[in-house]
Amino acid sequence: MKFPRRYSLKEIAQLIDCEYVGPDDFPVQGMNEIHVVTPGDIVFVDHPKYYDKALNSAATIVLINKKVECPEGKALLISDDPFRDFNKLTRHFKTFEPATKLIADSASIGEGTHIQPNAYIGHRVQIGKNCLIQSGAHIGDDTVIGDNVIIHSGVVLGGDAFYYKKRESGFDKLLSGGRVVVENEVEIGANSTIDRGVTGDTIIGEGSKLDNLIQIGHDTVIGKKCLIASQVGIAGCVRVEDEVTIWGQVGIRSDVTIARGTVLMAQCGVSKDTEPNTTYWGTPFGEVRTKLKEYAAIKKLPEIVKTIK
What we know:
Elements: E1 2-8, H1 9-16, E2 19-21, E3 27-31, E4 41-45, H2 51-55, E5 61-64, E6 75-78, H3 82-93, E7 108-109, E8 114-115, E9 120-121, E10 126-127, E11 132-133, E12 138-139, E13 144-145, E14 150-151, E15 156-159, E16 164-167, E17 170-173, E18 179-182, E19 187-188, E20 193-195, E21 201-204, E22 209-210, E23 215-216, E24 221-222, E25 227-228, E26 233-234, E27 239-240, E28 245-246, E29 251-252, E30 257-258, E31 263-264, E32 269-270, E33 279-281, E34 286-287, H4 288-299, H5 301-306
Enzyme class: transferase
Organism: Christiangramia oceanisediminis
Protein name: UDP-3-O-(3-hydroxymyristoyl)glucosamine N-acyltransferase
């Protein structure tokens, strides 16, 4: 998430009332999670296990809960609770705006696009040409939709990320300030839900087709010309490359890459990266021919046991 203007390190420190290490005028241009940071961004870290990763990332400002040696060319924001203060910044730069009508005045809708009754179109939404948004769809704030897109009834674009920190008092939510971007020629089936990024974009690539009842988590990127069947659940921060096919009830854990041309057979449980142009099956999942051979061998076990004296 980029800020509307360049801020100084001192200004940001004042917003969250914390100490800082670095020049007062050190430039701050945005805030992002570690997988999408660029120079000028703030990244937060609150566990020693991840200090080095954050300090050596592309981010040039690190919001951290311990005063450590500051890498050259970077700055630190020292906070007793970086998670809380990251949320403070999100609230400041992405203030909640209540809806006053079904289609916000700030929404932009392209020529030839039809919005069916009772669809909700949020603040600053951009919808391209020749799209169809069916009744009951919810298009959240800042969503971007390309040309020739079909959104079926009950779809929610831009729900909050499922991202919580466990505390003694319960679960503390990381606020979402990112977007959903749907590229040209995409179709999204009824009652599917696509969460917006925490600070970046959740993206559905050009020409991809999504069935009903699909869940896609925050900051996940779906490539071009992918085919995803019903009841698939994809966690946050997953990268699905181009021309991937995912059949029904597949579950994919966070932070994995589904390589180009992968086919995931129904009910796969995907826990790690895949190889290009390879078909997988099962839980734990594996290359389909290998898994079928394993399954055939298991079926022979009762007969094998009978031969053991």
